[in-house]
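User: My instructor asked us to take a sequence, write out its structure as tokens, and then describe one feature of it. I'm not sure where to start. Here is the sequence I was given:
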Amino acid sequence: MSRRRSQPTSWIHRWSRPLIGAIALLGAVNTGYITFTRLFGSETVCPAGGSCEKVLGSSYAYIGAIPLSVFGLLAYLAVAAFALVPLLINPDRNKQQRTQVESTTWFLLFVSTTAMLIFSGYLMYIMASKFIAVYGATGVCYYCIASAVLPPACCADADWPRLG
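Assistant: Let's start with the prediction itself. The structure tokens for your sequence are:
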């Protein structure tokens, strides 16, 4: 039987779940705003004078009649739940349950953030090749860039060695 030596944990390991949860909630606010504007027919106010409507109103931003931002919102809310729910379990009273939930949710965090990272990369390719290449700087969607930057931030904060 092998035993792991107790090593002092760094601050990133101690705070990885709250950080991932906070980043995911920022992503949920971002995609929630886009979803709200898409579903209720308002125009998205783009920061820095950009033209987000070209990207967000295109056929690439929808699956049928459903905006992609709905799926992004659901994904960010799931990541926030995976990161934060184990923190609600008292480790002094329910150590075994907390350990089990942490183990399961680390795996779910890995899978979900990896999938988000890959899909965000694909969407950035679409924005660069179909919008920025054609319209230049006015083809940039800053909300899309923010949504694409947040999944790698979640991955970077994770304590992946605990997966094994």
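For the description part of your assignment, you could build on this observation: The first helix runs from residue 11 to 39. Try explaining in your own words what that tells you about the chain.
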